[in-house]
Write a structure and sequence with these properties.
The structure is a homodimer of 269-residue chains.
Chain A lengths: L5 E6 L4 H11 L9 E5 L5 H13 L3 E5 L3 H14 L2 E4 L2 H11 L15 H15 L7 H5 L2 E5 L5 H10 L4 E5 L9 H4 L5 E5 L2 H14 L11 H18 L3 E3 L5 H14 L1
Parallel strand pairs in A: 1-2, 1-3, 3-4, 5-6, 5-7, 7-8
Helix pairs in contact in A: 2-3, 5-7, 7-11, 9-10
Chain lengths: 269, 269
C-alpha cells in the first residue's frame, strides 16, 4: 500500500453512529496499521457537503455518512457518482425501512438520539449511581440497585458497572475481601439482583501483577501471590454460595461481553 | 397502525453496532410509541440465520444485520428476496469499501471490536480513573489526568467524565464550592488541560430543584436558591478566570454533545 487509507465521516449530528460502524469495520482490517479518520459533524447543507466530498475525492478517501434528511442523502449519492467517490449511506436504508413499518415519515431532525428526554436522564442517573456506589462505598446503594456485582479485586466490577449504566441500569458493586464480611444489606436483597464475577486464579494473578507494575509497586506483593488469590477466591465462593446468585466467569471476557451476558440473565428472569 | 413494529437485530458478535444504528434510526420515528427489538447475537451459521429470518418474516418485521462473513451476508440477501423480507446490511457496504482502500481481505473474525488489546485496557483504565478521581476525591488525580473538569454541583461533571473515558481519556473532576478553595494542584497543571463547565442560573436552579425532589428533600433548600446559585457561579467565574482555561456552556447540552466539544478543543490544541 502506497498511502495511508483515509475514511471521511460526515454526520448531521455528532457522528457517533457513523463512528461505531467505521470502528467496527476497521477492527476487521487494522492491526496497528495506520489510517486516518476525518470527521465532519453537524453538516446540514449542500454547500458544506460539496466541500467535504471534494476534499474526500482529493484524498482518495471513502466516505461514511449519517444524514436524516433524504434530500441530503440523495445529494451525496449523486455527487459521489459524479466525483467517482465511494460513499456509504450508514443510516438511510434503515430509516427508509422504518418509514414503511412505522407507516409515517421520519421526524428528520438531526441529533434526536441526544435529546434531553426521560431516557437520557435515566442514563445519566445510572452513571452517577454507579460512581456513587462503586466499590461498596455506601451499602445503601445495594438496596436501590437493579444489579449488584460481587467479586474480588480486579474482576472488572467498576467498568462493568459503567457499561451497564449506559444501558440505564443502576449498578452497585461490592468487593469481596476475606478479612471483611460483606455488608448485611447484600444478604437482604433479592438474590436474583446479585451477580457473582468469578475468574480463574492464573488469569487473576496475571492481571494483578500487571496492575502492580502499572502502579510502580513490587510484583511479588501479597496481592498477587497464589496463596492470597486462592484464599480470596475461596471466600468469594462462600459468599456467592450463600447468596445463591448467578455467577459469570469473566476470565477471558471483554467488559462488553460480560455486560451482555448480564443483560441476558436479567431479561430471562 | 394495526400492530407494533418489530425490528430484528442479527449479529455475529454482541450486536452493539447494529443496536446503535437501530436506536439512532428509531429516534427519528418513536415518541413514546411502542415497538419491539428482537436481538439474536452470536449468529455464525446459515441454520441459525434461516430460523431467525423465518421468524422475522412471520412477524412482518424488518431486519438489521452485522455479519463480517460475506457468505453469510449473501445468504441473508438471497433468503430475504425469497421470503419477501426487508433486511438491511449495516456493516457490509463499509467492509467492502474498506477492502478496496486497505487493499486486503478483512480478517472475518466476529467480535474483533471487543478484543482484549491495548486499546481495550486503556479504555478500562480510563473508566476506573474517572471513578477514582470523581468529585475531587483525591487531588493527585489532577496531575495524572488528560482533562480536568471544573464546575459547580449539577453541571454533568460525573457523566461527562465517563463519556470521555469511553474515548480513552483520563478525566478528573473538581467541584467548585465557595466555602472551599480548589486544591492547589489545579493551579499547577497546564491550564489547557482544564475545562470549565458553566451553566445559566435558571437552568441550574431547575436541575437542582428536580434533584432535591428526586432525593425526597424540600425544594427550597439553600442548594436551590437563586442567591446561593449566583454565589456559586460567581466563585466559579473567579476560579476559571484565574485558571484562564476554556469554558463550555452546558446549559442545554446533552453530555455527548459537551464531550464532543471537549474532544474538538483537545484536538485543536
Amino acid at each position: 500500500m502506497l498511502k495511508k487509507p483515509i475514511i471521511y465521516l460526515i454526520s448531521d449530528s455528532l457522528g457517533e453512529t457513523a463512528e461505531k460502524v467505521i470502528q467496527a469495520s476497521l477492527s476487521q482490517f487494522v492491526n496497528g496499521q495506520e489510517y486516518e479518520i476525518v470527521r465532519t459533524p453537524y453538516v446540514e447543507d449542500t454547500t458544506k457537503l460539496k466541500q467535504v466530498l471534494t476534499n474526500a475525492t482529493r484524498d482518495k478517501a471513502i466516505v461514511g455518512y449519517t444524514l436524516v434528511n433524504p434530500e441530503l442523502r440523495q445529494y451525496v449519492k449523486q455527487k459521489s457518482v459524479l466525483l467517482n467517490l465511494e460513499s456509504i449511506d450508514i443510516i438511510g436504508p434503515m430509516l427508509e425501512a422504518m418509514e414503511r413499518i412505522f407507516e409515517k415519515k421520519p421526524r428528520m431532525k438531526p441529533g434526536l438520539a441526544h435529546q434531553l428526554d426521560e431516557a437520557y436522564f435515566k442514563r445519566v442517573e445510572a452513571i452517577e449511581f454507579a460512581v456513587q456506589y462503586d466499590d461498596g462505598r455506601d451499602p445503601r446503594g445495594i438496596e436501590q440497585a437493579d444489579i449488584i456485582l460481587v467479586g474480588v479485586s480486579r474482576t472488572s466490577k467498576t467498568p462493568l458497572s459503567q457499561y451497564l449504566a449506559l444501558k440505564s441500569l443502576k449498578v452497585a458493586n461490592v468487593p469481596i475481601v476475606p478479612e471483611v464480611d460483606p455488608p448485611e444489606e447484600l444478604y437482604r436483597v433479592d438474590p436474583s439482583k446479585c451477580i457473582g464475577l468469578k475468574i480463574n486464579p492464573e488469569k487473576l494473578n496475571d492481571i494483578r501483577r500487571e496492575r502492580l507494575k502499572a502502579l510502580g509497586l513490587k510484583e511479588n506483593a501479597n496481592y498477587a501471590t497464589h496463596r492470597r488469590i486462592e484464599q480470596e477466591l475461596a471466600f468469594f465462593e462462600c459468599v456467592v454460595n450463600k447468596l445463591a446468585c448467578p455467577v459469570i466467569d469473566v476470565s477471558n471476557k471483554a467488559v462488553e461481553e460480560t455486560a451482555n451476558l448480564i443483560m441476558q440473565i436479567k431479561m430471562s428472569q
